Amino acid sequence: MKTIVHLDLRFCSSLLETPNFDMMPNLKDLYLSKCKKLKEIHSSIGNLTERDALELDGCSNLEKLPNFYQEIKNIIRLDLTSCSSLLETPNFAMMPNLKYLNLSKCKKLKEIHPSVGNLMELDVLDLDGCSNLEKLPTFDKEMKNITHLDLTSCSSLLETPNFAMMPNLKNLNLSMCEKLKEIHPSVGNLSKLDTLVLEGCCNLEKLPRFYKEIKNITRMDLTSCSSLCETPNFAMMPNLKYLNLSKCVKLKEIHPSLGNLMELDTLDLDGCINLEKLPSFDQEMKKITHLDLTSCSSLLETPNFAMMPNLKNLNLSMCEKLKEIHPSLGNLSKFDTLILEGCCNLEKLPRFYKEMKDITHLDLTSCSSLLETPNFAMMPNLKNLNISMCEKLKEIHPSLGNLSKLDTLVLEGCCNLEKLPKFYKEMENITKLDLTSCSSLLETPNFAMMPNLKNLNLSMCEKLKEIHPSLGNLSKLDTLVLEGCCNLEKLPRFYKEMKDITHLDLTSCSSLLETPNFAMMPNLKNLNISMCEKLIEIHPSLGNLSKLDTLVLEGCCNLEKLPKFYKEMENITQLDLTSCSSLLETPNFAMMPNLKNLNLSMCEKLKEIHLSLGNLSKLDTLVLEGCCNLEKLPRFYKEMKDITHLDLTSCSSLLETPNFAMMPNLKNLNISMCEKLKEIHPSIDYLTKLEDFYFDGCSNLRSFPSLAR
Length: 709
Description:
- The protein has no helices and 30 strands.
- It is mainly β.
- The protein is flat, with a radius of gyration of 36 Å.
């Protein structure tokens, strides 16, 4: 087969052996990738002198390559990625012109053939994930062409090579080399280096000195170098653009030369928990746009931001010792994002002297000592404002009412806030307002100024007795949460049909005397009225909610019955009437043909269940625990193939069990504490899927079913 030049056997995952390549003397391209069962390659491969690429990535059972007896001058690419059983590499002396060598994820490889040090044409050497490799062979000749060396996750590596033999190296990645304690000092002479990544070198204490100015280096990543005690002299890296020192937990100071990095764009110090301050910036750093000091929990002062006039993103979150921010912050006119979350000792922000037209995101979450908010008039385009958990905050600057671009306002947990400032402009963009746990709130804002509000959360506003009547005009509202508004007696009237509202939560509104007219919420899907202890009845319009999926009335202990359902509610799948202890009758389940989960537990006055229960063929779970006056269940007229869980625990008046033949797939059955029960329906013998059966406390049970099947 002299004419064949290309052979592709990729993904032949059952291939056990390769052909005799002597019959293909002119083969140039050979692809054997992902041949997972291949253990060896025919020795004739060593005679393919015309080949320029050999792709063996993913041959996870291959232990070694055959010997090469002839010099293969044409081969420039060898890929052995994820050859996870490979124990040794070939003799590279027979591939003198190799440019690309990938041995990544060769986890069993402990050493590399020393001939790799003579590959003068090599450009890329990838050893990522060679977790058993302790060192590289000595490089005896200068390898002028190599530009990329990747030793990522060589977690057993004890020493690096002599980089003097790689004078033109551009990209060096030593990340996750966890045993590496030092780097060969020759790295300091790599004048062509562009990227140096040392992320996760957790035993590295310092970098070697840089003796030459490395003008090309633009990116240095020292993330999670958790033993690093000092940083290098950055004066030797004048064009550095990206510097990441995050999670360098032992770092107490940064070399003062940092302040001269005129090209720096991003400085990440997230998690430098022992860093008390940054060095002084002696020159204006016009290029820096991103500064991250997150979790610098020992930081006592911020830098002078006047030296960073184009800063866009500043993150000071979790700087717990920070009591004030440098006043120069107020002049950062290019600001886009300011995050101060968790600055628990910060009492106020500096004054803003310039209009900050670009800022769109301000996060003051958990600034628990904050006494006042800034003047928002200086942030006219603010979109996202989070002031949650600012526990000492009693009022918000009145300029809030002019933020016409605001989309999201979160005030959750501002427990001393009594009211919001007036809104003087219509805030067309606001879609989310969260006032959760504003436990001192006495009144809500005028929602007429927020016509497009979609999500409103007033849960746990315990002092709130009424809601502004303008709520009834929020036609775009999707979600309304009032959980725990324990002094709220009623909701305002809804004057417009609210077609978008799908979720209404009135849980634990323990003073609620009446529900709203649901006719104004025709597309409601989830309704939770649980623990509304004073509620005696529900508005009859409930019976027309044809889109309802979930109805939860748990703990409505004064509710005697549900309103009639006039439409078939095809979508309802869950009905929870747990602890409705005054309930005298259940609804007509014929109107809920697709009900899956029904919970009537602790309905202590319930003596019978509507006969239509027997037609709920989609029912999966039926819980009647604690229905102590229930004597029997209605007859089941259809086979209920979906029901898997039936709980009759503590039905102490129950005289008979249902016919289990109608529940052939029942897995969990609990009839414990059914004290009047004398026998169990014999059909239980046919429950072949039954996994759990409890009948403890059935003190009058005369015989135990055979469960023969």
